[in-house]
Design brief:
There is one protein chain. The protein is of the alpha/beta class and 415 residues long. It is built from 14 helices and 9 strands. The protein folds into 2 domains: 214 residues, TIM Barrel, CATH 3.20.20; 78 residues, no CATH class. β2, α2 and β3 form a beta-alpha-beta unit. The chain is globular and about 70 Å long. It holds the Pfam family Radical_SAM.
Length: 415
């Protein structure tokens, strides 16, 4: 490997990290170096990768790979062993100094660190852990740290990562075991899930210890997440949704991220020639929201898909479900429980909360509901208010055409 300066390494390894979507900084513990607290950095406040906290704050993270060299040859990965890409590698101390230098210039508020596998899984994991350990212990860095861990590494190394990091990620890579066996034969689904299970146990045990002993150390306070690639194999949206739900239930994940497959140079013949529509990735995120925040069961989201198991791209999954199961509508805005209001297309969690609060004091009319949404057109066939009843509108054969978003050709130089 040719000798590269830090700037050249950063250009290569930051670009190589862009394929990792699981880069969010929500849910961690609050730490600050203001006032009497000694150290540097913070997980609070406004802060080149941009993640968003639940309250809407934009948080900047240095997102890089330790190295893009790898001993594995996963077909879908641009950094695979047989790929003809320019290679680079940081030492652990180079990443530490780079993180501190970026932080002191107010460029970032934290670090997202992943890596290809070099020498062995244990050796690579040791280097990743050393970065986090040095930042925390040698430099008292209190900013956010997200580490991508390696399932094949020794469980003790992964446990050490959780002691220093706010969040850890263990990627399942692909939605199905058949897809993993075909495109990443050197990786093992049981080992990946075993590592996730161990991490969940450690997080729960530490949380329980902290309830009894204030001196107990924190362990991955922002939990663990994972990522799966969409469109590299034949898995349908229904299979992806089912896998995501199983991962949430079994391993207590904070997030499952979806990354649309992107064709890579010198691609393997087993990969598709075209990337899936980006809208497919968006629909999967919407289905994820339905399960996490709207009370939908996985089987209900799957039921919204077509006979081929794919979610429609022209309408969102909640509207698809409502059109398919019209017997549940219309919903009386003034009487329906929260769980039914959440199933009305066009009503978000905030709007439902406002409706529940307002109807304690007055009977709501259509205009009242319209003020809580972007467009009342989508709502009308599915709700009843004091002055509105859809009559036969809900059962119209062409209802989808009436309320689906209209496609519009944007003008490049429009005023």
């Amino acid at each position: 490997m040719a000798q590269l300066d830090t700037r050249e390494k950063l250009a290569i390894l930051a670009d190589a990290a862009k394929y990792d979507a699981s880069c969010a900084s929500s849910g961690t513990a609050k730490r600050s170096s203001e006032g009497k607290a000694k150290g540097i950095g913070s997980t609070e406040g406004m802060g080149i990768c941009h993640a968003y906290a639940p309250d809407g704050r934009c948080i900047s993270l240095l997102k890089i790979l330790l190295t893009n060299s790898c001993i594995f040859d996963c077909h879908y990965c641009i950094n695979r062993k047989s790929s003809n890409v320019r290679r680079a590698r940081f030492t652990a101390q180079e990443v530490v100094q780079l993180t501190l230098a970026f932080y002191r210039r107010n460029y970032i508020e934290g670090l997202f660190l992943s890596s290809g596998i070099i020498r062995s899984s244990n050796y690579t994991m040791e280097q990743i852990v050393e970065v986090a350990r040095s930042l925390r212990e040698d430099h008292q860095f209190r900013g956010y740290i997200h580490l991508k861990t390696i399932p094949d590494a020794d469980p003790e190394l992964i446990a050490q990562a959780g002691l220093h990091a706010d969040r850890v990620s263990i990627n399942v890579e692909l939605p199905t075991t058949r897809g993993l066996a075909r495109l990443a034969p050197e990786k093992s689904a049981p080992r990946i899930e075993g590592a996730m299970r161990d991490m969940k146990t450690k997080i729960e045990d530490t949380a329980d210890a902290r309830k009894r002993y204030r001196s107990a150390p924190r362990f991955a306070p922002a939990g663990q997440s994972t990522q799966m690639i969409v469109g590299a194999d034949s898995a349908s949206d229904g299979e992806i949704v089912t896998t995501a739900s199983r991962l949430y239930d079994r391993f207590g994940l904070r997030r499952v991220y979806y990354s649309a497959f992107s064709p890579i140079p010198d691609a393997s013949a087993v990969l598709p020639l075209q990337r899936p529509p980006l809208m497919r990735e968006h629909r999967l995120y919407q289905s994820d929201w339905l399960m996490r925040f709207y009370g939908f069961q996985p089987r209900e989201v799957v039921a919204a898909a077509g006979d081929d198991g794919m979610l429609p791209l022209d309408i969102d999954p909640k509207l698809a479900w409502a059109l398919k199961f019209r017997e549940h509508f219309p919903v009386d805005i003034n009487r329906a429980p929260r769980e039914m209001l959440l199933r009305v297309p066009g009503l978000g969690t905030k709007a439902v909360g406002s409706i529940l609060a307002a109807r304690r004091w007055r009977t709501l009319r259509l205009d009242d509901v319209a003020r809580l949404t972007v467009s009342v057109t989508k709502l009308r066939p599915f709700i009843v208010t004091a002055d509105w009843r859809p009559t036969l509108l809900t059962d119209k054969v062409d209802l989808k055409a009436r309320i689906a978003p209209k496609r519009e050709q944007m003008e490049l130089f429009a005023a």
